[in-house]
Design a protein that fits this description.
single chain; globular; 2 domains; six-stranded mixed beta sheet; Quinone Oxidoreductase, Chain A, domain 1; six-stranded parallel beta sheet; binds NADP nicotinamide-adenine-dinucleotide phosphate; Rossmann fold; 11 helices; binds zinc ion; 358 residues; alpha/beta; 16 strands
């Protein structure tokens, strides 16, 4: 007699989505299997999914880590359509949200600290990560439905503007987490570099935390919007005179830029013991002038999304402060056009797909 050592593959159902079959292919209709909910799973009908620049980096394989086909999307808000027998925090009909992660080891020190994004084994991304249940890779939120372990599903406290909530699941938490970690608060001077999806949330959040917020942009036409969103000052970064006025004056700068640019220009704006934190992830490595770190003991750091407890904290903070993302809702058929506009910095300030269009 033989006993099988292979874990049982769960039952599957088909779902419709949009995916790319290669780095040079446009996103196009793609249907694939989702698992039927296991005891700890929540099945969600996707209502809205935000469009993150990381989706574009991955679909075009700019980080050299894509396994095709890729179904992107990790800013998901939807409604619960089924729950497994062990699920306690969600019931059918509830609103639910999913961000950048759908699993992690749950046992390492980082997972135990609620910092699953830094899991020592590796967190499982909502897309483009190995899928331990069905084999192949995980598929994201550019789809009609998704099945996620309850631990990685968030509650949506703001029930009024679901399209505006969706981008909080990546753009919101990716800016909230470093602002909190570096203790941004009243009386501090804080810079946000780039007014895109992440940047505009950074401006809103830093303002709500009480900081004096300066937005750096390459797009002079975004000046008025930046002020409306909560920036106290706006600097066009190509204007050296405007930059020089801020030399050595910042406690903290958060850089959200998606393309190569000169980090030294921002390091010199930081005061003693201040920090420049990168969340933007251009594929090319930057050049750092070491003296810009040595003088004034400045620090250069990075930050990755945020853990599950902090993501819930951020959603609650945003609901309390009435913060949502400024969005342009699009049908999924416009997704390739939206990517081209994102590359031209022509986003105000996050595209969100209305999944009813699929
Ligand atoms: P986005 O909406 O496209 O915004 C990026 C902004 O950067 C643009 O709107 C533009 O702002 C500025 N920019 C673009 N090209 C530039 C250039 N050549 N020089 C200077 N500035 C330029 O992108 P996003 O969705 O916010 O994502 C931003 C980056 O963060 C991406 O690399 C993404 O992969 C990364 N990301 C990282 C994490 C993390 O965990 N660390 C999470 C999510 C996303 P202005 O017009 O104002 O200059
Ligand atoms: Zn993202
Ligand atoms: Zn772990």
């Amino acid at each position: 007699m033989f006993t099988t050592l292979v874990a049982a593959v769960p039952a599957k159902t088909k779902t419709a989505g949009y995916g790319a079959t290669s780095a040079s292919a446009p996103l196009a209709p793609f249907s694939f299997a989702r698992r039927e909910p296991l005891p700890q799973d929540v099945q969600i009908e996707v209502l809205y999914c935000g469009v993150c620049h990381s989706d574009l980096h991955t679909v075009r394989n700019e980080w050299n880590n894509a396994t095709f086909p890729v179904v992107p999307g990790h800013e998901i808000v939807g409604r619960v359509t089924a729950v497994g027998s062990d699920v306690k925090r969600f019931k059918v009909g509830d609103l639910a949200a999913v961000g950048c992660m759908v699993d992690s080891c749950r046992t390492c020190a980082n997972c135990k600290a609620g910092l699953e994004q830094y899991c020592d084994v590796a967190f499982v991304g909502t897309y483009n990560s190995p899928d331990k249940h069905l084999g192949g890779m995980t598929y994201g939120g550019y789809s009609k439905s998704i099945v996620v372990d309850e631990y990685f599903v968030l509650h949506v406290p703001d029930k009024t503007n679901l399209a505006g909530v969706a981008p909080l699941l990546c753009a919101g938490i990716t800016t909230y987490s470093p602002l909190r970690h570096w203790k941004v608060s009243k009386g501090q001077k804080v810079g946000i570099v780039g007014l895109g999806g992440l940047g505009h949330m950074g401006v809103k959040l830093a303002n709500a935390m009480g900081a004096h917020v300066v937005l750096f942009t390459t797009s002079p036409n975004k000046k008025e919007d930046a002020q409306r969103l909560g920036a106290h000052e706006v600097v066009v970064s190509k204007n050296q005179k405007e930059m020089d006025r801020h030399l050595g004056s910042f406690d903290f700068i958060l850089d959200t830029v998606s393309a190569p640019h000169d980090l030294n220009a921002y390091l010199t704006l930081i005061k003693r013991d201040g920090t420049l934190t990168l969340v933007g992830a251009p594929p090319q490595p930057p050049t750092i002038e070491v003296f810009n770190l040595i003088f004034k003991r400045r620090q250069l750091a990075g930050s990755l999304i945020g853990g599950i407890p902090e993501t819930q904290e951020m959603l609650d903070f945003c609901a309390k402060h009435k913060l949502t993302s400024d969005v342009e809702v699009i049908p999924i058929q416009k997704i390739n056009e939206a990517y081209e506009r994102m590359l031209r910095s022509d986003v105000k300030y996050r595209f969100v797909i209305d999944m009813a269009s699929l």
